[in-house]
Amino acid sequence: AVSERDLLRLVAHEVGGHVLRWTNARRQREPLAGFGFGHTVATEEGLAALREEEQGLSSPHTLHTYALRVYGVIAAQELDLVGLTFALSEYTDPDSAAELALRLRRGIADSQRPGGVTKDHGYLSGLLELRTMASQDIALLRGVKWSMTHLDLVRRLAEQGRLAPPSLEYIPMDADSSRQ
Q: Residue 56: its pLDDT value, please?
């Protein structure tokens, strides 16, 4: 069953993290701000995970899930589907282990060969990197679809007036307003 808190976290992550970032990036004076160039997964998923934290919707369980994804990405490079599932089951229940193993292996036809999708590494790695940044830099990154690795360029363009902090802000739903 999905709890109300889970739904609020999902909205914060998907709308407050992804949709709002895309919308703000497309509204920038700099037309290229809305295009995700390079390796943007850690920035994109890290900002969405940070939004969850800012709204008080993250939990030790959420962080455990993100950490388990990192472990799974690394383990998938050496293990087949069954081996990966068993490796993950050392740290979570069998159903969650199987679900995560299948998620990490999506699109890989041969279940007996090692390999996996590395995108899921970005949730935790991005979040940890963003936690070290100044709030002004985070705001600037929320206004473009670019990677943290381009932060110097983002700052320069902001100084030139070609980029601005996001014009739209996330207004969280709370349990009471979601019932209206």
A: 95
